[in-house]
Amino acid sequence: MATLFSYTTVQGDAFDSISWDLFRTEKYTGSIMEANPTFVDVINFDAGITLTIPVVVSAPNVSNVDWGQLIVTA
What we know:
The protein has helices at 15-23, 29-35; strands at 4-8, 50-54. The chain is built from two helices and two strands, in the order E-H-H-E.
């Protein structure tokens, strides 16, 4: 079973904004929605709703790596 934690909404939260606020990306919007099937029809949340948030493992950011300086050892 995946690890989960709780998040309590503030007025006006939406699944994508919650993903952005927690993970600094909207790519986990679907995962948050899947963890909260009761609320998939909600566009904007009222304050005080407790949602289940899956814990995600993020990959390291390699977009700014200077590949010319990368040293590979065998």
